[in-house]
Design goal:
This protein has helices at residues 2-10, 23-40, 84-97, 122-126, 143-146, 149-157, 161-170, 185-190, 195-201, 232-243, 250-257, 322-327, 335-345, 361-371, 377-393, 397-411; strands at residues 44-51, 54-65, 70-71, 78-81, 179-180, 206-209, 212-215, 228-230, 275-279, 282-291, 294-301, 306-312, 427-430, 436-442, 445-449, 458-462, 467-469, 475-479, 482-486, 491-495. It is of the alpha+beta class. It has an eight-stranded antiparallel sheet with strand order 13-14-15-16-17-18-19-20, covered by helices on one side. Strand 9 and strand 10 (282-291) form a beta hairpin. Helix 2 (23-40) runs antiparallel to helix 13 (335-345), helix 3 packs across helix 7 (161-170) and helix 15 (377-393) packs antiparallel against helix 16. The longest helix is centred in the N-terminal third of the chain and has 18 residues, at 23-40. The N and C termini lie far apart (64 Å).
């Protein structure tokens, strides 16, 4: 609770950049975004910024269709993945206000039987606090369970989510370029949108194959967790509606954006369909989208009626940073979000932008070191981690190794490696007959291989005598002839195979 009060008290100190029409200012933002687009190997991005109901900047970068050379425009339609959850939350609050349901209703009332946990309510699922026992005690992002809310809506109203989101949100707000997944034909037709318009204006989907953007396919999924399509102009209409009091009344908005507070008075990072985070006195409500061949980001700073939107036709806007965003609910895990925070939320602080793409590592380290004496040190620490993960996701192995070793210098400066002691870790670790982890030692370095790595060796970076990092989030621990692979959200333990007698 104290954290939230501090945020509210400091908000009056926040002001975005004074002159939104400053061309040089937006050129800096565009350059930073374009650098990251190329680093992330995303074919196309669409960006929009709205303040006080007015569009102050929008841009298309890269390509909606690489083969045909069609460039992205702000009007290009994208799949928005989990930004769909924000629509679901607004819809549920509207239906509660209309007396159709209550957020404290049990899921059992709607014919949903969840065997793992008892006493699940709509609000628990809506705020991602449904995995604790009892529900409501801890946050854990759970998109599959969020999909259950579609059954709630159907049972409460007799209508599908596609029908309801059209009736209550997209039609009233005149969001004519927003609709359910075009590959989910029945749901798309329920929106009564123009099929031809969407097929012509929808960005082509891409994924990396051997480090190269390659056309892929969009998912057929559409539900209360994922599957909406939209574009920048429509989503900015949605943002403006959230800033006003007509679409949702003030009491409803307060309920929507109130972070979950546990029985022990801990404030969690998720409200209802939105992440809620206060950073350096700036209260933000945001969400990221991460789907097959698509990703997205929306950041709202309601005190200034400011919203930033970024849409992509590949998953890499979110995929490298999904742990920081989804597991920890931390917006500054995204380097793209940080670009806007630096230039809009903290413009008066004149924070430097570090170019991880073009700057030599020695120069970059010096620039980074100067940021560690400021109150924004944590932002730059998270940005270093983000760029390590980015290099790993885009299979730039040399860059990843370079940045990972730098990360170790900052996070674990005291440890001295002892390769001579690693012999017992070398060997085979079978999960099954057909899936075997292999640990090998070469030139005083330890490597890890899996069938999924297709022959590529992944270096293990030591942080103590028996613990190594695969990346900043994933640890490999060797103990009692076992290899333990773990991070903050998962753990796998594999026993070492007996060595063959010679």
């Amino acid at each position: 609770m104290l954290k939230g009060l501090v945020c509210m008290s400091i908000m009056c100190m926040f002001s975005p950049v004074s002159s939104q029409s400053n061309a040089k200012h937006w050129q800096k933002i565009e350059k930073s975004l374009e650098n990251y687009r190329k680093s992330l190997k995303i074919p196309g991005l669409a960006i929009g910024v709205v303040q006080n109901g007015q569009l102050i900047w929008s841009k298309g970068l890269g390509y909606a269709d690489l083969k045909r050379g069609i460039r992205v425009k702000p009007s290009t339609i994208f799949h928005i993945a989990s930004l769909t959850k924000t629509f679901t939350a607004a819809l549920l609050l509207k239906l509660e206000q209309a007396g159709k349901l209550s957020l404290t209703d049990s899921l059992k009332k709607y014919g949903i039987k969840e065997s793992k946990l008892k006493n699940l309510q709509i609000r628990h699922v809506l705020s991602h606090v449904s995995d604790s026992d009892p529900p409501g005690n801890a946050y854990k992002y759970n998109s599959p369970r969020f999909e259950l809310l579609g059954k709630v809506l159907k049972k409460a109203t007799g209508k599908s989510f596609a029908q309801l989101v059209t009736q209550y949100i997209t039609n009233p707000l005149k969001m004519t370029n927003t609709a359910p997944n075009i590959n989910s034909r029945k749901d798309f037709l329920a929106s009564k949108r123009n099929w031809y318009v969407f097929t012509q204006n929808l960005a082509k989907p891409y994924r990396l194959k051997n480090g190269v953007p390659t056309q892929f396919i969009y998912s057929h999924r559409f539900n209360t967790a994922v599957g909406m399509m939209s574009n920048i102009p429509d989503l900015l209409k949605y943002a403006n509606a959230l800033d006003g009091d007509t679409f949702l009344s003030k009491p409803l908005k307060q309920k929507l954006f109130q972070p979950w507070i546990t029985p022990t008075n801990d404030t969690l990072p998720y409200a209802k369909g939105w992440f809620a985070q206060c950073y350096k006195g700036v209260q933000t409500y945001w969400h990221y989208g991460y789907g097959r061949s698509c990703s997205s980001l929306i950041v709202r700073i309601p005190e200034k009626k400011l919203t930033v939107l970024v849409l992509a036709n590949a998953d890499l806007l979110s995929e490298p940073f999904s742990a920081g965003l989804g597991v920890y609910g931390d917006l500054i895990s995204s380097p793209v979000a940080n670009i806007f925070l630096r230039h809009l939320a903290f413009a008066k602080d004149s924070l430097p932008t570090l170019d991880y793409t073009n700057t030599p590592i020695a120069t970059l380290k010096k620039q980074w070191q100067t940021t560690q004496t400021t109150t924004f040190a944590k932002m730059y620490q998270k940005e270093l981690v983000a760029n390590v993960l980015l290099a790993k996701s885009t299979k730039r192995h040399k860059k990843f190794d370079e940045l990972m070793r730098w990360y170790l210098e900052t996070a674990y400066p005291a440890y001295t490696t002892k390769p001579d002691a690693w012999g017992p870790f070398v060997g085979r670790y079978p999960m099954s007959r057909y899936y075997v982890f292999r640990v090998v030692k070469n030139d005083d370095k330890l490597y890890y291989k899996t069938p999924a790595s297709k022959g590529t060796r992944l270096r293990l970076y030591p942080i103590n005598s028996n613990t190594f990092l695969l990346d900043p989030y994933t640890r490999i621990i060797f103990r009692n002839r076992k290899m333990i692979i773990q991070n903050d959200w998962d753990r796998v333990e594999v026993k070492k195979a007996a060595e063959k007698q010679k």
